[in-house]
Amino acid sequence: MRSWPRPDIPALPGSGRAPRLHDDSSGHFLESAEAGAEATLYVCGITPYDATHIGHAATYLAFDTLVRSWLDAGIDVVYTQNVTDVDDPLLERATATGVDWRELAASQIELFRTDMAALGVVPPASYLGVTETIDEIAAAVDALRTKGIAYPVPTPDAAVTGGEDWYFDIAAAEAATPWVLGSESGLDRATMSTLFAERGGDPGREGKRDPLDPLLWRAERTGEPAWDSLMGRGRPGWHIECSVIARDTLGDTICVQGGGGDLVFPHHEFSAAHATALTGERFARVNAHGGLVAFDGEKMSKSLGNLVLVSQLRAAGVEPAAIRLAILSHPYRDDWEWHRGDEQRAAERLAGWRAAAGVAVVADGSANAASAFDLPNGEGESEALDLLEQVRTRLHDDLDTPGALALFDAWFDAPHAPAATALAARALDALLGIRL
Ligand code: 5CA
Ligand code: ZN
What we know:
Blueprint: E1 20-22, E2 29-31, E3 39-43, H1 54-72, E4 77-83, H2 88-97, H3 101-119, E5 126-129, H4 134-146, E6 150-154, H5 158-161, E7 164-168, H6 170-176, H7 189-198, E8 215-219, E9 234-236, H8 238-250, E10 254-260, H9 264-279, E11 284-290, E12 293-295, E13 298-299, H10 310-315, H11 320-328, E14 336-338, H12 342-357, H13 381-396, H14 401-413, H15 418-432
Parallel strand pairs: 3-4, 3-10, 4-5, 10-11, 12-14
Antiparallel strand pairs: 1-2, 6-7, 7-8, 8-9, 12-13
Helix pairs in contact: 4-8, 8-9, 11-12, 12-14, 13-14, 13-15, 14-15
This protein binds 5'-O-(N-(L-cysteinyl)-sulfamoyl)adenosine and zinc ion (ZN).
The site of 5'-O-(N-(L-cysteinyl)-sulfamoyl)adenosine (5CA) has 21 residues, from α1 and β10.
């Protein structure tokens, strides 16, 4: 499906390096891209209801920082994001509010696009809904059946309908492939069991061989959307969707699989397991996750309803650059809490930088900076080049955005020649997406 417009990214002198990223599977810092090769990135997209809250924005801004650093390193970036546009919580919300699930999804995807464009997030090259990819996903489930890594479990009404759900057989996959349970998430079985029950799994489903075996295909239920397949009418399970969308667009082994920390298990464990079961190859070289954003003491989540929406902040007159600054002030891997007034504090920090840079802010809140920073070089250039190098070094170090922003605090605290400030402003815009 259509994504959103690409922001202008100013060119910078020289080039940066592909960041080293924390890999949550191994616990090590790894190169995010291989020298000379294109960089492939898959980031799990929204389930389109109650978008876009600050937690979503934090996740997409973390990976936007990675994309911007890759581009700065001269690397070709191939980025895919999905939309989980058919799923239990979406269908439940549609039923509860009396809205058609397709209309609910379409309206929330549009809101998400508007928010991403406003925040200046570089769009994915492939933006794919699950409903656009059903045939490919069904073919992957069928291939797992052929390999003996999937098994049927009769539906509760099977006596009448003959319906069968299909599950991924963890033990069979472990015997046949390099993947073993926990190799992606790095978690022990007790922790995985707790998370599985909390995050959409069905450990108590009768007929499963292992309580943690994840659903691959759900047979049609009355009143639910369903598609024809070799397994009969039904719809895909969650993990196989991302696995297939990623492989179809990016290849069998990708550089980085990303998302928020709530996806470490079961989602990314099993997305990778399904892919490896089909290819025999490791799915992602780096598994990277952003921390979870809380509000009022709990993880910001659609199910709890404790949401701060990007669109609400924007409607209240908060400039997207201030939202970006407030979020990027946190290390991307930390869990943190959004506090009322964070947007105001970020707006003041931004205003201080603008005042120091001599930028007037026009009435609608956007800066009239487009032409002000067009000067690529001149007096004071070398100190601005030093700043640029230091910013690149911070971002190379596992996307240290707070460290990079602190360098700009120090820069704008001191006097500089206009051409040097022009280059500093370009760096802030290109690498952190904050336009003065
Ligand atoms: N559609 C699935 C992924 S395939 C999903 O998790 N959708 S979501 O709408 O719930 O979340 C979208 C993205 O935001 C995911 O990467 C998720 O990990 C991330 N996310 C959700 N809540 C938070 C939060 N409170 N803090 C940080 N990231 C979050
Ligand atoms: Zn996903």
